[in-house]
Amino acid sequence: MRKQILKYLEKNSRANLGELAVLLDSNEAAIANEIAQMEKEKIICGYHTLIDWDKAGEERVNALIEVSVKPQRDKGFDKTAERICNYPEVTAVYLTSGGYDLIVTVEGKTLMEVSRFVSGKLSPIEDVISTTTHFILKKYKDHGTLMFHKNKSERMPVTP
Question: Which letter does DSSP use for residue 136 in this model?
Answer without folding.
Answer: E
